[in-house]
Each structure stands twice: as structure tokens, then as C-alpha cells.
Design a protein that fits this description.
Helices cover 6% and strands 56% of the residues. The protein contains three helices and 18 strands. 35% of the residues are buried.
Length: 358
């Protein structure tokens, strides 16, 4: 009922009138996924790996002239959440201004794949791109304003950018919690801003390089404790670079972040930084088969006060896997990985079905 009322409210806010109704365009997409994962010899609570997961990711969009509405609702056997809800204005063909809850602009992985498992080749996500409720260490959901633009520089060259600002997640003893649209309460949330700028030399290929920047104030909730004691909030700065390339059947993606953290409210807390990132390579094969490999690594993690608050965070992981896409919109994926957190070393095995159902 809450979701129905929320969608109804969006429709009320959407511009009314006979001319607008005549030009109304709409789209509904549904992605499905079912996954089984195992970490032999390690208890599930010692990792952020879910043993069984069934999910439906529902996306809807409405557009009338220059005005848009967009939403994404994720339903799994562990949660149900309105991941995105955005109202937009498109002043030109190359730019749009959104208001609402959105995915932060400085994550290329999440900008491309979002919550639809069918959209990504691998089963797992890189740890540094993980969602807040999945053990993520970088805020991914914000409530505020997002500006996206796409400019043609001449020929096939393009410059794409996104700038966002709004209420950042809070941090609790169980990890980060973003603003919940279905249970709105802005108390305690502070501000964050992020930007992504990308140069894309080929319009029809997923290639390019870019810069990622974010500055977030992550407030403390329910008295989370660092090793130095309680604090008011964390000032976090993220600076990153990414590159994507395609040549023939090969694809390569690299992303690296420098994350700087300062605990506000603890006079003795030092300003610390660590580096984290990943590289993933993919190879297309005949008959819908793909092979992929990814390596993730984190440097300067030892003694980092911020990472100590995420003891299950995967510091290093090497992943190998294969995917078979069949019947046009269904896929089976198999993945194996060797992972290291600050407290455990373990193997991960995943088997997943995913599909674009509508």
C-alpha cells in the first residue's frame, strides 16, 4: 500500500492536462534473479555473502514532453526497498535535472548496472561498489538533486557528466543506512556531493576514461563506536579514476578510489586514507557464452579507523566465472573467488539465474 500511495503521489505531481496526457510515454521493466552462494568453512555471519537470494527488480518510467518520472523497487527474500524515485525535467536533448532519491554519481559500476543482476556479467559486485545494506563502505543512495548531461564534442566524441548533491546515509553499528523514502526521516542525515565526468571516444562502444569525485558527511546513528570512541560524523572524500575499453570480443574495466576519512568529534583522530579498486576483463564466446575475471585490492587498510568499522569488508578478492545467455533474455552464471577480509580468508562459490522478464 505504501508503494501504491507513493506512485500515486508522483502521478499527481506530474504535470496535468489533455495535451500532456496525449504525449505521455511509459515503460515498465522487470528483472528477476535467483542465486545460491556458499563459503565453505566460514559462517555466513562472518561474511556479507547471502546463502540464498531471490530478487525482482521493477523499474518504471513516465515522460511527457520535458518532464519525467522514474522509479526502481527491489523486492528480495531479505528486503523490500524503493531504491530510486526521481522526478525530472529535460531542458534539452543532452541534459536532465532530477529530484528525488538516486544512485550517487561517482560510481560507474552502479550507474551502468544498478540493481538488475541481468545487466552485469559477474554475479558479485566489486566490494567498493557494494550497496549500503550489503556491507558497502562508500555511500550509494542520496536524496536530493542530480544533473546529468551528454555533450557531443565533434564527430563521435562525447563528454558525459553527472553531478549530484543531497542527504547522505548515516552510519550505524550494522553499517550504513541511506534515507528511506517509504519511512521518511531526515533527522541526523548530513549532506554529500559527488560528480562524474567521462570522455567517450566512440558513441556505439562502451569505452572511455573519466574522473570520479565525492565529498560526504556521514553522520553517526545509535552511537557507533570506533576504536577511539564515539564521534559526531565522518568527513569522507573520494577521488577516483576509471577506464573502459573494448576490442573485438574483449572488454576491460578498471576503477580505483582514494578514500580519505576524518572522524569529527574526536580530537585525537588522525586523518587517514586508503586506496581501493578493481579490474575486470571479459571475453565473449560463441553461442552466448562469456568468460570473466576480476581482481580487487585495498592498500593501506591496516590500522585504518574507518575500515575497522566494516570488519567483513573484502580487502582482496580474485574472481573467475562464466556466463551463458540463452533464450535472448535469460542467463546462467557460475562464479568462484578467493577472498580476504580483515578477519577471514575464505572461498566463495556462486550460481545464479537472471533474466529480463519484461
Amino acid at each position: 500500500m505504501k508503494t501504491a500511495r507513493l506512485v500515486a503521489a508522483c502521478l499527481i505531481l506530474f504535470p496535468a492536462g489533455r495535451a500532456i496526457a496525449d504525449n505521455l510515454q511509459h515503460e515498465l521493466l522487470v528483472f528477476g534473479a535467483a542465486e545460491v552462494a556458499r563459503t565453505p568453512g566460514v559462517d555466513e555471519e562472518d561474511t556479507d555473502v547471502e546463502a540464498e537470494k531471490v530478487a525482482a527488480d521493477i523499474l518504471f518510467s513516465l515522460q511527457s514532453n520535458s518532464f519525467k518520472a522514474f522509479g526502481e523497487y527491489l523486492l528480495t527474500n531479505h528486503e523490500a526497498d524503493l531504491e530510486r524515485l526521481q522526478l525530472g525535467w529535460e531542458p534539452s536533448d543532452h541534459s536532465v535535472l532530477w529530484m528525488g532519491r538516486f544512485h550517487q554519481a561517482s560510481s560507474v559500476w552502479n550507474h551502468q548496472h544498478h540493481h538488475g543482476q541481468f545487466l552485469q556479467t559477474s554475479v558479485s559486485r566489486p566490494a567498493c561498489e557494494e550497496w549500503e545494506d550489503e556491507g558497502g563502505i562508500i555511500p550509494q543512495h542520496f536524496l536530493g538533486l542530480l544533473w546529468e548531461s551528454d555533450w557531443r564534442l565533434g564527430g563521435t566524441y562525447r563528454l558525459k557528466s553527472a553531478i549530484g548533491a543531497g542527504l547522505a546515509p548515516v552510519i550505524t553499528p550494522d553499517g550504513m543506512e541511506p534515507f528511506d523514502v517509504l519511512k521518511p526521516n531526515a533527522s541526523g542525515h548530513k549532506l554529500g556531493a559527488q560528480a562524474r565526468i567521462a570522455y567517450q571516444p566512440h558513441e556505439l562502444q562502451d569505452t572511455g576514461v573519466g574522473l570520479l569525485i565525492a565529498s560526504n558527511e556521514i553522520a553517526a546513528k545509535d552511537a557507533p563506536l570506533s576504536s577511539l570512541g564515539t564521534f559526531d560524523h565522518i568527513d569522507q572524500t573520494v577521488i577516483g579514476l576509471f577506464a573502459k575499453a573494448e576490442w573485438g570480443p574483449w572488454k576491460l574495466q578498471f576503477t580505483g578510489y582514494r578514500v580519505t576519512s576524518n572522524f569529527d568529534g574526536i580530537a585525537s583522530a588522525p586523518r587517514q586514507e586508503f586506496f581501493t579498486g578493481y579490474a575486470q576483463i571479459e571475453r565473449d564466446l560463441p553461442h552466448g557464452f562469456e568468460l570473466f575475471a576480476r581482481h580487487e585490492n585495498t592498500a593501506d587498510a591496516g590500522g585504518n579507523l574507518y575500515l575497522e568499522m566494516f570488519p567483513r569488508y573484502v580487502l582482496r578478492r580474485t574472481t573467475l566465472g562464466a556466463r551463458w545467455q540463452f533464450a535472448r533474455s535469460h542467463a546462467l552464471s557460475l562464479e568462484a573467488a578467493a577472498a580476504d577480509s580483515s578477519t577471514k580468508s575464505y572461498a566463495e562459490y556462486r550460481l545464479q539465474w537472471s533474466a529480463a522478464l519484461l
